[in-house]
């Protein structure tokens, strides 16, 4: 599987691999990639299989497949081990990757994500939504998701962020997004493995996140030994875009304090 990706910053810098959520693309991480690259990190932001410019013929893509794609990309780029971050579905892929390949990850960032399983109703909703967007496309789905993705304050104050989020969702390939929804419905429960994470971990969440509320981030923080929790005030599910200055400062402070310097 060949993934589309951006590779910013000096090739000699400490590698950082950032994993986008659903239904987005690698531009979701653009503010962080540009900031970290200026600071001397080598930042790789791929489009996951079936998203952005990365193609797929899958009708179901499970999280282990996404994780293995990322390891293969890291091998191709000779990244060795790396700082690994993911948001929402990207965070669950990150949890899968660190469980399957713990030797590859030096530092972990889990943003607006959760470790547990869906309720039966939520699981069925993923299957139903996958069928719906396969039939109808992404446009209406994107409009329905948008008010839940970003906070009311962001929508009022940051039309640029709203436009970016809407574009990513509307432009997401429907078949790839549907395949991911089906695979995500069948993901394992990562909660039991959290206590075995042995690398410095930042857990970050928007205070107004409707999809993964602060309580979910607090659970991750409690279960992951020595982790750091940061709540970004006024942000919804995408604090890295809604409040990029605050998010970037939290990320840079954490990387410096954990020894993950460029």
The helix count comes to 11
Q: What's the helical proportion of residues?
A: 40-55%
Annotation, overall tally of beta strands: 7
N-to-C CA distance: 29 Å
Q: What is the string of helix and strand elements?
A: EEHEHEHEHHHHHEHEHH
Task: Tell me the β content.
Answer: 5-15%
Shape: globular
Keywords: Hydrolase
Pfam family, one: Abhydrolase_1
Domain AB hydrolase-1: 15-243
GO molecular function, one term: hydrolase activity
Protein model, in words:
By secondary structure, this protein is an alpha/beta fold. It has helices spanning 30-38, 63-76, 89-100, 120-136, 139-149, 152-157, 159-171, 174-185, 214-223, 239-242, 244-257; strands at 5-8, 15-19, 42-46, 82-87, 105-111, 201-206, 228-232. It has a single domain, classed as Alpha/Beta hydrolase fold, catalytic domain (Rossmann fold, 3-Layer(aba) Sandwich). The chain is built from eleven helices and seven strands. It has a seven-stranded mixed sheet with strand order 1-3-2-4-5-6-7, sandwiched between helices. β2, α1 (30-38) and β3 form a beta-alpha-beta unit. It is globular. It starts with a strand and ends in a 5-residue tail after the last helix. 48% of the residues are buried. The mean pLDDT is 97.
Quick synopsis:
The chain has 262 residues and is of the alpha/beta class. 47% of the residues lie in helices and 15% in strands. It has helices at 30-38, 63-76, 89-100, 120-136, 139-149, 152-157, 159-171, 174-185, 214-223, 239-242, 244-257, and strands spanning 5-8, 15-19, 42-46, 82-87, 105-111, 201-206, 228-232.
């Amino acid at each position: 599987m060949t993934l589309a990706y951006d590779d910013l910053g000096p090739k000699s810098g400490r590698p950082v691999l950032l994993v986008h959520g659903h239904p987005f693309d690698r531009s979701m991480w653009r503010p962080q990639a540009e900031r970290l690259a200026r600071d001397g990190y080598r930042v790789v932001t791929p489009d996951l299989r079936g998203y952005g410019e990365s193609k797929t013929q899958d009708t179901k893509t499970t999280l282990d497949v996404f994780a293995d794609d990322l390891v293969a990309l890291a091998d191709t780029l000779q990244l060795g081990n790396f700082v690994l971050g993911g948001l929402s579905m990207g965070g669950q892929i990150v949890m899968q990757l660190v469980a399957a390949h713990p030797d590859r990850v030096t530092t972990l960032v889990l943003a607006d994500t959760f470790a547990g399983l869906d309720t039966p109703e939520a699981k069925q909703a993923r299957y139903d939504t996958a069928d719906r967007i396969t039939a109808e496309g992404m446009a209406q789905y994107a409009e329905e998701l948008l008010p839940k993705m970003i906070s009311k304050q962001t929508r009022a104050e940051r039309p640029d962020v709203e436009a970016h989020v809407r574009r990513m969702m509307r432009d997401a390939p429907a078949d790839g997004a549907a395949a991911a929804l089906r695979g995500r419905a069948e993901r394992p429960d990562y909660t039991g493995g959290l206590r075995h994470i042995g690398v410095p971990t930042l857990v970050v969440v928007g205070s107004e996140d409707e999809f993964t509320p602060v309580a979910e981030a607090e659970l991750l923080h409690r279960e992951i030994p020595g982790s750091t929790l940061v709540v970004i005030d006024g942000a919804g599910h995408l604090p890295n875009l809604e409040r990029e200055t605050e998010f970037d400062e939290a990320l840079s402070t954490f990387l410096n304090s954990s020894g993950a310097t460029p």
